[in-house]
Amino acid sequence: MNEKILMDLIEQKRYIELKEKLSEMNEVDIAELLNPLEHHITLLIFRMLPKNVAVEVFSYFSSEHQADIINAITDKELKYILDELFFDDMIDLIEEMPANLVNKILTNSTQDERKLINQFLKYPADSAGSLMTIEYVELKKEMTVIEALKHIKAIGLSKETIYTCYVIDNNRKLEAIVSLRSLVVSDDNKSIEDIMHDDVIYVNTHDDQETVAGIFKKYGFLALPVVDMERRMTGIITVDDIMDVMEQEATEDFQRMAAMSPSEEDYLDSSVLTLAKQRIPWLLILMVGATFTGGIIAKYEDVLSAVVILTAFIPMLMDTGGNSGSQSSTLIIRGLATGEISLEDIWKVLWKEFRISLIVGITLASVNFIKNMLLDRVGFIVSLTVSCTLVVTVMVSKIVGGVLPLLAKRLKMDPAIMAGPLITTIVDTLTLMVYFKIASSLMHL
Amino acid sequence: MNEKILMDLIEQKRYIELKEKLSEMNEVDIAELLNPLEHHITLLIFRMLPKNVAVEVFSYFSSEHQADIINAITDKELKYILDELFFDDMIDLIEEMPANLVNKILTNSTQDERKLINQFLKYPADSAGSLMTIEYVELKKEMTVIEALKHIKAIGLSKETIYTCYVIDNNRKLEAIVSLRSLVVSDDNKSIEDIMHDDVIYVNTHDDQETVAGIFKKYGFLALPVVDMERRMTGIITVDDIMDVMEQEATEDFQRMAAMSPSEEDYLDSSVLTLAKQRIPWLLILMVGATFTGGIIAKYEDVLSAVVILTAFIPMLMDTGGNSGSQSSTLIIRGLATGEISLEDIWKVLWKEFRISLIVGITLASVNFIKNMLLDRVGFIVSLTVSCTLVVTVMVSKIVGGVLPLLAKRLKMDPAIMAGPLITTIVDTLTLMVYFKIASSLMHL
Asked: Which residue, among A158, A274, A283, would best test binding to B if mutated, counting the most B CBs under 10 Å from its CB?
């Protein structure tokens, strides 16, 4: 069903047909269909949905729609939503809502829930604690398989994942995990202890979400337990939330590499002022940094006035240097992010970039020399100067581009800062120095 | 256990202790520990592992280790590995092995398997077909819950995922899905038909992996069914393989955006020549493209010789333009990749970038004007020329950077090409034209 059909059905008051069509749709698609619509229509359809579907659709709504719905519904309806919402979605909701609606939410929760909400709101942003949910299945190792399955049957529907169950001891310490798969394929009377895995991989509430995503990618888990400092079970993180984290981390790297402060907000939802603020600081730093480059040109003014044509090649040399350096730094930054390259590889990277840059530099310089001689007709000495500079520039840029991200990592900075824009500014200065040195010695200026 | 401890245990022939330590490790970690070691040590430890663990470790080995092990083991051992390996891992293996080992693998498979292998090898790279595996659970809608659970218990251990089961009709057409969760929490005597979902979301064997990854992200699935043109069930794709796809797609975008041909091979594993070939084409294109910029400088030679100091600001203006454009194009390219921005948003983007660039341009120009007057002391007219050019450059760059990725998408090209390097080359020319126009009119040259 698309927006057009939906609006037609509403206009013609064909509600039964509408309900029918909605019942065939996935909850994510319903939310997507309703998100751009006006609030009173969203509310109308929201109330048409079966209760359990409505809660799930609600969790996929934009925060504006969520706020409007909380504003419009009764306390009883809100209580139902809050009871059914997974805990991590509820925390996300509270973080997004304005103060008056947070109050409405909190007055509709029990004291225990409020305590738990407070605890969860305290976890640092981007930590494992801020990603986890509390709806997981706990088992005891003394249980038999059939007892465990009965327990899951009794409580299973309200748990976010039942595919991995967690075995805890009497102090709530995480002892082992057991998959629903093992439970289903094992004999009914085996004890949990016989089929559980006690070499559990887990994370701490304060671990960074990037670490957590790395573990999911490495092991291919569906869920990961989160424990506190005393290894007490506090929650689980599920793979669907990790896909969002992976996308978000990649987006942040893209932004940093293009000289912006990273932002989690969507482009179209961000205000013009927010976006401008995200972009100005690095542009200013790089603009002031380019003063050095200008200084070198000013210093060699007489060389340039003697052979004015040399100026015409400055943009090409600067761009080629910048592009060569970006290529190398991008590969290294990405390799560090995916874990393929580590700090110890610095010498390998250096040696590799040295050889690559020799091939790339000589290829570009040869093409350029022929072009300078035959097309631009700038004479042998100028062609030679430009081509020699090209070889040196490409080599320097690639080595600087390859090494700086690793140095940044070594200094516990984000390697993504050492990308195109910053490398370009650094390499520009070097390029011009080389250019003028070669020019003055070849032309005896 | 780390490499040091492992080598010590082997040297001192403390094999029982070694086995014990290995049994506590995750298969992924064992493979990671063995991957850098010499082949005879890998083989020694490989044979020490329990058979089922060995097969899983094998699937995580580097292709060199896999080849060496297939070379060294008996046909009987190989047959065991092939039987236990998931089908998608087997296809990956065959694609990586040299011809003589592929022969050894094929002679150890049954005729049916060979037929299926051939069919799978024909799916295009990066298609849903090339990602899927055939180990899934099939159910019939006439079954009861208890019958289904018994069926899963009987065959479950050899299936890659049993958490989603697929209901097919007598023509093998996909009818519905039913989750193990529903099976476990439902009454034993309910029929599958009562608890199954028939609004199944599925993909076709020829769909692109980016589409598939998009569906996983949107709906948070653990597995997705793959059907042929007649909607007959042919396989499933699991979420762990999709995390690899997401990472790979992001890496390809990073590479394209840094003016490289994308490559799936790891940096450290690629030869110098391969890496050079990946980088040269775009550098050449952009180098030749910069000829236009040089042409403009050559054309305005007399302006430059009259006021030589103007040359000193060319690098700063070019870099700032390039950086401003990169910021905008990066946000738009990424937004298109994550699905947040679509083609219809082009006017919204234009209007947004216009307003942002006004703020950013005026801010940078003001700082630059003060710096020019107080620090560089280049006089009022030059400061004004440079600052006015800055405003125009930033605005043009941001609008070009915002719109070109959308145009590329419209022309069915990859938007990631319209990133920093290409935008820089385009914007350089515009920047210099504006600079010289403003200079000649302000200075009456």
From this structure: A283
